[in-house]
Amino acid sequence: MLRVICMALMNVIPVVATIFGAAYAVQPAYGIGFSKDIYLWIPVLGNILAVLVIPFVGNLSDKIGRRPCIIVGALGSGLLSFGYLYAISIKSVPLAVVMSLLMWGVVYQGYNAVFSAFYPELFQTRIRVSAMAISQNLGTAITAMLPALFAAVAPPGSQNIPLTVGSIAFGITVIAAVAALSARETYRIHMNDLGKKDAVPVPKEEYDRLREQTLSDTRLAKA
Questions:
Q1: Per-residue pLDDT tens for 47-86?
Q2: What is the three-class DSSP state of 3?
Q3: Which CATH class for the 2-187 domain?
Q4: Interatomic CA distance for residues 5 and 32, integer angstroms
Q5: What is the pTM of this model?
Q6: Distance (Å, rounded) from C-alpha 173 to C-alpha 191?
Q7: Rounded-to-integer distance, Cα 135 and Cα 124, Å
Q8: Nearest Cα to Cα of residue 4 among 149, 174, 113, 123
């Protein structure tokens, strides 16, 4: 459960993109002066892009595993938070929008597209729903306090805001990535064996064959 709590801290990226980033960009006290109307479009565009990216990431996780997608998504979006906040600091609206879409709409989806499958796969059936729900909500609740933390360490008038807030965000994504790295890979584990420490993965060749057969049967059923 601790692993899931740590991985759920990835909610820091939406917090940076839509809460602190918006406050930093539009509040007069910070002196950036972006239009509020522009920032209302960032979550809309980010979610539209995410809808397009998620199926590809989900399919990729079935080929290479859940952990690589989560780790790359965590570290990549954490690093991009520096660029996003820097774009705001130099008052570049186009760059800020592009960086937010890359950070949230694309790279963050390495985590967002996979966690809903990976989390329950870490637990046995008898505790799966409760363990996942409790752990994920605890992690997400922790991130709810981040806007107050960001405002405390980077108030209006302070120096190096992108570096300060970006470092905290990246540090949190590192925690999430390490938690994912410490977990067992689950994508080739039989459903009945999920959550068991002694579970043996299906051989890659057999897994690929079964996956192709399932996809083929699904296509035939839809035809």
A1: 899 999 999 999 899 889 999 999 999 999 999 999 999 9
A2: helix
A3: mainly alpha
A4: 35
A5: 0.89
A6: 29
A7: 14
A8: 123
